[in-house]
Amino acid sequence: MDLGSLLNALILGVSIASIWLIAALGLTIIYGTAGVINMAHGELIMLGAYSSYMLQSYLGLPFLLCIPASFVIVAAVGLVLERGLIRYLYKRPLDTLLATYGVSLVLMQGVRLLFGSDPKYIAAPEIFSSNISLGFANISAFRIVIFAVTMLLVFGLWLLFYKTRFGVQVRAVMQNKEMAASFGINSGRIYMLTFALGAGLAGVAGSLFGVLAIVLPTMGASYVVQAFLMVVVGGGSLAGSVVASGVTGELQSVFAFFTNDTMARFIIFVLIVVFLRFRPQGLFAQAGARR
User: Fold this and answer.
1) Is 89 helix (H, G, I), strand (E, B) or coil?
2) d(CA 51, CA 56)
3) Phi-psi region for residue 235, left (φ > 0), alpha (ψ -120 to 50) or beta?
4) Angle at 198 between CA 196 and CA 203, to 5 degrees
5) Contact 21, 230 (CB under 8 A)
6) In whole angstroms, what is the distance from residue 281 CA to residue 244 CA?
């Protein structure tokens, strides 16, 4: 066995983990805070990619500025979606699931009508298109950028939820909405802001993923499954999603090294099913019961 190739696979596993995690971050926040299974999350990722494409193609905005701009645009879409639909369905989880699935179809077909079904492309700066040699492994510079952005987002979210007044309010609403309301916390406002934040993070993911692959109206479907898996395995918490993404990304890369990518995905899905059979609450169960 070539040790260099195995080390290369381990490094690639970190890249895979960062992609899965950044796709799951917004979903983790929405599900962890309000318990909403957002079936439109993949389409929010797709909107982030199309937002970057439009800003870059029609306004000439540099790619690095397209990333925060995509966050703002998709967060605004999430805000409208939450105020116009989701807030009426918080106590009806099955209705929320069906409603967000309907929203995903509307967004997908709407983008197809506006832009067509032909692929679009987002151009990254030339400096990100090269490969970096680590002696025993080569890795795309842009994958390193994705890893760095993912770590910055995780650190920023940790600061937001554990070091700010807003974070205290979010955690209070998560554990007991009625008790939080007795202390003057507006749970509706918390749900609105966290849904918009989660949607904005999906927009960032789409902006980054649009460089890795072609931009299509159906591109969200290729990421949403992994995002849901990371949230469920992690238990709906930020720390759980980080650990779940890291472990599954590395395992997939190692299994693919010994077999192939298709078999590796099959093994990963089987392991996740077995894991959830014995620990359905995930790696880190939420403290307290959401009410």
Assistant:
1) coil
2) 8
3) left
4) 90
5) yes
6) 13
Structure tokens, 203: 């927009």
Q: How far is CA 17 from the centre of its chain?
A: 11
Find all residues with CB under 8 Å of 272, minimum gap 6, and list them: 229, 233, 248
Pair of tokens at residue 163: 């070091």
If residue 26 lies in a helix (H) or strand (E), which one and from where to where? helix 3-34
> What six digits make up the tokens of 27?
């979903």
How many residues does this entry show for the chain? 291
Coil, helix or strand at residue 116: coil
Name the phi and psi angles at 124, rounded to 5: -95, 160
Q: What pTM was computed for the model? A: 0.90
82-98 pLDDT, tens digit each: 999 998 888 787 888 89
User: In sequence order, what are the residues at sequence separation of 6 or more whose Cβ sits closer than 8 angstroms to the Cβ of residue 185?
Assistant: 169, 172, 173
- Condensed to tens digits (0 to 9), the pLDDT of residues 209-257 reads 888 888 999 998 888 888 888 888 988 888 889 999 999 988 888 888 8
Write the single-letter amino acid at 150. Answer: T
- Which residue, among 36, 52, 174, has the nearest Cα to 93 in the 3D structure? 36
| Distance from C-alpha of 188 to C-alpha of 57, rounded to nearest angstrom | 37
Residue 225 to residue 286: CA distance in whole angstroms: 21
What is each CA distance from 83 to 76, 105, 189, in whole angstroms?
Answer: 11, 19, 10
Q: CA 160, CA 3: separation in Å to the nearest integer?
A: 41
Contact by Cβ (8 Å): 217, 115: yes
Taking each helix axis as running N to C, give the angle between helix 238-258 and helix 261-278, from 0 to 180 degrees, rounded to the nearest 10.
Answer: 140
Q: Where are the alpha helices (DSSP H) in 35-186?
A: 41-58, 63-84, 93-115, 141-162, 165-175, 177-182
Q: What percent of the chain shows pLDDT beyond 90?
A: 41
Pair of tokens at residue 266: 């099959």
Q: 41-58 vs 221-234: helix axis angle to the nearest 10?
A: 130
